[in-house]
Every structure is written in structure tokens, then in C-alpha cells.
Amino acid sequence: MRRLLYSAVLVLLMLGVTASALSAAEGDTESILVAQGADTSAFPEIALTVTLPVNMLAGSEGDVLFTVRENGETIEPMSVEPLAAVRAPIDVVLLMDTSGSMWGMPMADARQAATAFVAAMGPEDEIAVVSFGTTVEVLSDFTADRIALRRAVESLEAEGRTALYDGVARSAELLIARGERDRVVVLLSDGGDNASVNSIDYAVERLRASRAPMYAIALETPETDLDALASMAAQSRGRLVAVSDSGDLERLYEDIARELTTQYRVTYRSAEPKTKDLELQVIAEVNGRRGSALFVIDNPYFYEAQGEGLGTEPASPAASFALASLVVALAFVAVALGTGALLGMFGRRSSRIDELEFYDQLRGVDDKTTTRVAGTTGVIRDAVEAVAGRRGLTPIVHQKLERAGLPLRPVEYMYLHLVGVVLVGVGTVLLTRSFALSLLIVVVAVVLPIALLENTIGRRKHAFEDQLPEILSMMAGSLRAGWGIGQSIDLVVQEMSEPAAGEFRRVQAEARLGLSVEDALEKMANRLDSDDFRWTVTAISIQREVGGNLAEVLDLVAGTMRERAELRRHIRALTSEGRLSAVILFLLPFVMLALLLIVNPGYMTLMFSTGTGLVLLVIGAVLLVIGGIWLRRASEVEI
Fold first, then answer.
1. For 95-138, how does the pLDDT look when each residue is reduced to its tens digit (9 = 90+)?
2. What distance, in Å, lies between the first and last C-alpha atoms of the chain?
3. 409-446: per-residue pLDDT in tens?
4. Selection from 252, 243, 259, 230 nearest residue 35 by Cα
5. Rounded mean pLDDT of 284-309?
6. Rounded to an integer, what distance in angstroms lies between the CA atom of residue 398 and that of residue 31?
7. Is the same domain home to 563 and 420?
8. In terms of DSSP bridges, do strands 289-298 and 30-32 run parallel, antiparallel, or are they unpaired?
9. Containing domain of residue 326, as a range?
């Protein structure tokens, strides 16, 4: 009996201790205030607007005491103003889960709760109704028409899957398009996301961009993703409420409507710390109940010290143009210095003898008959001409232009290239306001014309080599008919198309001016950089020195070239699959990146906004270039 008595006493003591602990824990529980907004227009005075939950004010008779902490330092507020009577109208997005799991009583209770919420809001508050199932649908845009809102709520039907993140992102976009009114998102969901195109990170990013706190109401089921809802609510300065019975939804929605009318504006004077951000905590106490809200805002003092603070006027168009010009000029100077360094390492200074070969390109035909361009354009062209001539760049450009068949002088080409780079760079800076993108576009503008010129040279060379067997057969036939080498060249000029006709016309002109046919043909071979034609010129030169049947030699060379061309085409057909695979593998990363940016923009944000992501991008680009070179080498066969 005594043991039973001791046991009963011990049980009672344990129950008493447990009850005391529970009540103490309940008393220490801190409510979450909704951080509605921060106003720094009168800095260093900062006004913070917070919403108190209904459970803090239930049965309270005393005043609410507020304290502000700025970067951990406690500051007493200058004033506390209830906004119940003077609050501004609010924009509210009612975001309703209409997935199949809401079918039946949950959907009916949700419609009833949303209707009660609409009725409890102020007459000037505007509400939008958005539903999300498999897709997101805006049932009603922002309006104060209660009849239209009631119809939108009554049209809610449960079916499909759960595109939760898409619904949050769409709601945020609706609020971003609104003016500078107070705003809030009230979300109801009973399941985890399984149908969204966007990620939770993108949904949070858009929600934070809208500056709207989110009340997340979770109707608990085995499929409810409380972690995701809590994360979105916390990162938007809102809060999460979870219920297990859909019958409690009406009460919750009415409580939220009352909370939105119990806002307070707390004004305090900042200590003006020199940090980039201000971490603010507003603490409210009433009748032993305690709650807090967190704000993280840009520090106006920091940006003012950097010349970007309050009262800074936007840059004028002239200043923007000057900045853009400076950026492009610096980028071009960097590219020019790099090119100059390479020329200084691998090139040599041109001599007067070198300049004589391209005298017309450097000095003009005659100072008396050549009109020089005046003004800034003339100065730039003269500078380009002088620098390019001294560094030996003019002969190189002249040779490239000749091989490409372009009727341009080297100075003209370099001048147009320079002006194009500057104009593209300035335009990019003015349109994008991005230094990194402008620098990238400048580099592309520098490299692209050079790549196009090389491509033109390659296509012209291949076109000539395709014509060469037919040219040699035509010359051999004319020689058999008793014509000389000069007459056979005239026949080629008359019968063949470009580029062969133009090149042989130049040989014809040089021979008439006194140059030997062999030397003119050799210059043509060097100009075209064609090994096949060099062999032909060598055969012609040997025949003219030692004698023999030149027509037979040309037929033999033409036959050899046809066989080589046939073999080249055969190998090209055999390697076509490898070359196509190389192109696909090279383009696949860019195609996938473009698709991800279109389908799910938030998925790739870390790749471009973090140091690790940028390092991975650089490593990927280097590996892609190495792989492209290796694939090109592997798929090419020299004939």
C-alpha cells in the first residue's frame, strides 16, 4: 500500500513538472510578425511596417511595446503608429490549390473560406484570385468588385496535379506589375509540387522581387511539403500556418484578414552603420506574448557614401555615352595591345624594301591626284596606315584580301574593322549597361571579321581547285590545236568562271606588261596558296626549260588531280558521320543551356551569379574548345 502511495505521488509530481514545462514552453514561444515593408526615404529615419498575428492580440488590453535591433544593436523607436484606421489599400493575391487531392470537402471548405476572406477585407483593397493545378490560371485580376471575386472563387474546381512553384511565381509577377501599394500573397496548398516548370529557387526569387510577404496555409496531408512552404514563407518575410482539418480554413482566413488590419508603423533613427546591408529585427510584446519580424534592406548610408545614395540623379545621356565610349575604348586598347605584343614577338619591323612591294597601299598613287579624307576620319585612317605599315601588318592584310578576292585596300579594311568594333561596343553598352557583356561583344566583333575573311579565302581556294582539272584539260586541248601557252591562257579567261577567270586575267595582264608567263603563274600560285597549282606551274616551268609535250604533261596532271579529288570526296563521305557527330557534340551544351533558360530560368541562376558557377563555366568552355579541336583533327584526313 505504501509503495502504491509513493508511486502515485511520484506520478503526480512528474505530471506537475511536465505541465509546468509545457506551459513555460508555451509562454516562451515567439510568434512571427509579418514584415510588411520598410521606408528609407527620410533616412536616417526608417519606418518599418509590421503585421501582428491574431493570437498575440487575443484578449489583450494593454499597449503593444516595440523594440528595434539594428545589426544586433538595440534602439528604442521614435514612434509607433497603429494603421488600423489610416492604412493604405492592400493588393492581395488569393493563391488556391485546385489539384485533384483537394476534391470534395476540402475544396468546398476552401471556397467558403476564401469567400469569407474577401468579405472581411476593406472596401478599397483589391484582390486577385489565382488557381494552380496542372497549370496556373488567373481567375480574376486585381479588383475591388466583391461580386466578381465571389464568382471567381465559386469557379474553383479540383483536378490535375500540383504546380505550386509556378503558381507562386505567377502571383509574384502579378504583384510586380502593380504600383507601390502594400501587397501580400495568401497561399493554400495540401500537397507537394509535382508539375511546375519553375524551381522553388525561382519562385522565391520572384516572390522577393515583388516585396510581398506570403501567408502559407498548409492543409496537412501525407503529400504536404511543409519544408517548401515554410521556406517560401520565411524568405518572403511571411509565415506558415498548418491545419489538419479543412473545416478550420474559414477561421484561419478570417484571422488573416483581421491581421492585415492590425498593422503598425514603427519609426526609429538609424545609427548609420557603414555596413552594406541593414539587418533589422522588430520585437513586439503584449501581455507577456512576444513576436518578432526580420528585415534585411540596403543601407542608404553606404550607397550615399559611394555616390549612389539618396538624391542622386540618374546619369544623363551624354554621361552614359561618355562612359560607354570609355569602356569600349579601353576594351579596344586592350585588344590592340595584345595584338601589338604578338606582332612584336613573332613579326618584324617592315623595311623600305618591303613597303615598295605594296607602295600603292601605303602612300597612294599620287599626292596631287589622290584626295585625302579630311577631319577625324582622315586622322584615324592616317594613324591606322602609319601603325600598320611600321609593324609589317599591311603586307599580311594585303595578301589576305588578295586571296579572298576582295577589292579593298588594307587601310580601308582595317579602318572599317576598327570603326565597326567601336560602334558595336558603344551600342552594346548603351543598350545593356553591362561591362562584361560589352567586353564579350567587343571581342566577338574583333574576331568575327577575321574569321569571315579566312572562310572566304578557304571557299575561294576550294572553288579554284575544283576548276583546275577542267582548266588544265582546256589548256592541253588548245596546245594540241597548235596554240601557244599565252593563247591557251586567253581561252581560259574567256571560257571559265570566277575565280579562275579573274586570276588568269591578272596573269594575262602581267605577261603583257613584260613579266614572263612562268613568273606570273608562280605569283598566282602563291597568291592562291594552292599546292595543286604550284605543282602545275612547276611542271610547266620544267617543260619550257627542257622541252617535251606540254599537252601530255597537263593531261597527266589533270588526271592525277581528278583522282585526288575523287578520293577526297570519298573520304569526306566516309567521315561525314564523324563530322556531324562533332558538330552535334559541340552545339549540344549551347542548345541545352538555351532550353533551360527558356523553360526554367531560375535553374541556371547559380551558374552565372556565384564564383563556383563562373569557374565551372570557364572550365567547361576550355574543355569544349579542346574537345572541338580534337574532334576536328580526328575527322580530317590529309590527301
1. 999 998 888 898 999 999 999 988 888 888 899 999 999 999 99
2. 110
3. 777 777 788 788 888 878 877 777 666 667 777 778 88
4. 259
5. 70
6. 78
7. no
8. parallel
9. 318-433
Q: Number of folded domains in the chain?
A: 4
498 and 406 assigned to the same domain: no
Rounded CA separation 627/617 (Å): 15
Q: Does pLDDT of 388 surpass 60? A: no
* Residue 165 Cα distances to 162, 194, 552, 622, angstroms: 9, 9, 79, 35
Report the pLDDT value the prediction gives residue 58, as an integer from 0 to 100: 53
Alpha carbon 601 to chain centroid, angstroms: 9
Paired residues of 130 in beta bridges: 95, 138
Same domain, 343 and 229: no
Cell output for 456: 572566304
Can you spell out the DSSP letters for 238-285? -EEEEES-GGGHHHHHHHHHHHTT-EEEEEEE----S-SEEEEEEEEE
Cell numbers given for 285: 510584446
Of the chain, the percentage scoring pLDDT greater than 70 comes to 75
> Tell me: the pLDDT tens digits for 23-65?
333 344 566 666 667 878 788 888 888 777 766 655 455 577 8
How many residues are given for the chain? Answer: 639
Instruction: Let me know whether 244 and 349 are in one domain.
Output: no
3-class secondary structure, 197: coil
Which DSSP string do the residues of 68-92 spell out, in sequence order?
EEETTEEE--SEEEE-TTTPPPEEE
Cα 474 → chain centroid: 57
Cβ-based neighbours of 192, under 8 Å, separated by 6 or more: 162, 164, 223, 224, 225, 228
User: What is the DSSP pairing of strand 73-75 with strand 65-70?
Assistant: antiparallel
| pTM exceeds cut of 0.90 | no
Q: 148 and 115 in contact (C-beta within 8 Å)?
A: no
